[in-house]
TrEMBL record:
GO terms for cellular component: nucleus. The keyword Nucleotide-binding applies. Residues 268-369 form the Clp1 C-terminal domain. The keyword Metal-binding does not apply. Residues 5-87 form the Clp1 N-terminal domain. This is Polynucleotide 5'-hydroxyl-kinase GRC3. It comes from the Eukaryota. GO terms for biological process: mRNA 3'-end processing; tRNA splicing, via endonucleolytic cleavage and ligation. Residues 102-232 form the Clp1 P-loop domain. It holds the Pfam family CLP1_N. It comes from Vairimorpha ceranae. Keywords: ATP-binding, Nucleotide-binding. One of its GO terms (molecular function) is ATP binding.
Length: 370
């Protein structure tokens, strides 16, 4: 089947995990999330909702089955290109952007790919514990220097990650401390490239703290016009309309991608931990807000206390780079593993053996789809 897209139109397609669908650009030019599609080459699309956009108009050839396909005139890609064009202007001094709203990941991926196509790098930082573009429950950053393929995700090499251990900000003090450690680590890199900070759905007070901590130049709100007008920050704001799809993200899906790859191209390893490791948790497991305490009451436990805990089945463990217990709270993790059997300390890991470290950080995130 062949179809024609006019200038600034997009072709939207929904494909489930049992269907096979592929597309070819026969003439003109088209792209997916900023990745230019090569003419007369088949691109396979599976288990996703995606958008093929054209600036010039194009003719597509499609083959296979899908749940839904249609052409739309509503698109935000020209808005993203307009922002990109302004950023590469030599007179533009804006480097650090915080991104909020709906469709944040697609926006970031698109603009990152535009920069990569010009052989420029982008620093991508994720402080939303739920998204899991890098790893759920973590505060992480990655220097992207290769194209984010249309059917893949960020290549997780040279990741700098601090494991918080939950998808909810229950311990604000711990979250803020890890955030400051992440900022310090980023500063040490002395990166002068575009810096995108993907933020969670939070209050104006939270965003104001991020602006101050990371010296943010501008806030970009994607797809949520009400939120755009409600946010109160001391910097300029920019609104990018929503178009296409918002891909659902889940903790299990993100962890599966970490161990197996998006298309099961990786093979994780399972083995028993032989030597002595300390399994610890940072802070209280469930931290009651100050307002929930009795009048005049104070917390008895140190909310940043490091304590030994019992290994739990299916728990995600962060492999700490710390050499001593005092260093745990300020050290990044080298990677993640999952407890398969707590009785014999059997874990799922991306490598055949563990690094020479001494501490696992155990949070409340669990994963059992192995």
């Amino acid at each position: 089947m062949e179809l024609t897209l006019l200038k600034n139109q997009e072709y939207r397609v929904e494909v489930n995990d049992t269907q096979k669908f592929k597309v070819m650009v026969m003439s003109g030019s088209a792209e997916i999330k900023g990745q230019e599609l090569i003419n007369e080459k088949w691109y396979t699309i599976k288990n996703t909702k995606t958008v093929i956009f054209t600036y010039t108009g194009c003719k597509l050839k499609i083959d296979g089955t899908c749940d839904l396909q249609f052409i739309s005139n509503n698109t935000n890609v020209p808005d993203i290109l307009k922002l990109f064009t302004s950023l590469i202007n030599k007179e533009c001094n804006d480097k650090t952007f915080m991104v909020v709203g709906k469709g944040r990941t697609t926006f970031c991926t698109t603009i990152i790919n535009y920069f990569i196509r010009l052989h420029k790098k982008v620093l991508f930082t994720e402080i939303d514990l739920k998204k899991g573009n890098i790893f759920p429950g973590s505060l992480s950053t990655i220097h992207v220097d290769t194209l984010v393929e249309y059917n893949e995700h960020f290549k997780l090499s040279n990741v700098l990650s601090f494991y918080y251990g939950s998808t909810e900000i229950k311990n604000k003090d711990l979250y803020t401390l890890l955030l400051s450690r992440l900022k310090e680590a980023i500063d040490k890199k002395k990166v002068d490239d575009l810096h995108l900070i993907l933020c969670p759905e939070e209050t104006s007070k939270y965003y104001q703290e991020i602006v101050k901590m990371f010296n943010v130049d501008k806030l970009i709100c994607v797809g949520d016009e009400r939120k755009f007008h409600m946010i109160d920050v001391p910097i300029n704001k920019m609104f990018i309309p929503l178009s296409g799809y918002i891909n659902d993200s889940s903790v299990d899906k993100s962890i599966t991608r970490y161990f197996n790859g998006l298309n099961n191209e990786y093979t994780p390893y399972s083995f028993c931990v032989k030597r002595k490791w300390n399994v610890v948790r940072v802070g209280e497991e469930c931290l009651a807000p100050e307002s929930a305490l009795p009048l005049g009451g104070t917390r008895k436990l140190d909310i940043l206390e490091i304590k030994d805990v019992k290994l739990e089945n299916n728990c995600v463990l962060g492999i700490s780079d710390a050499k001593t217990s005092e260093e745990i709270i300020k050290s990044p993790v080298l990677g993640y593993c999952v407890v398969i059997n707590q009785d014999i300390f059997k874990i799922l890991c991306t490598q055949t053996k563990l690094p020479k470290c001494s501490y696992f950080i155990q949070g409340e995130i669990k994963y059992s789809d192995f």
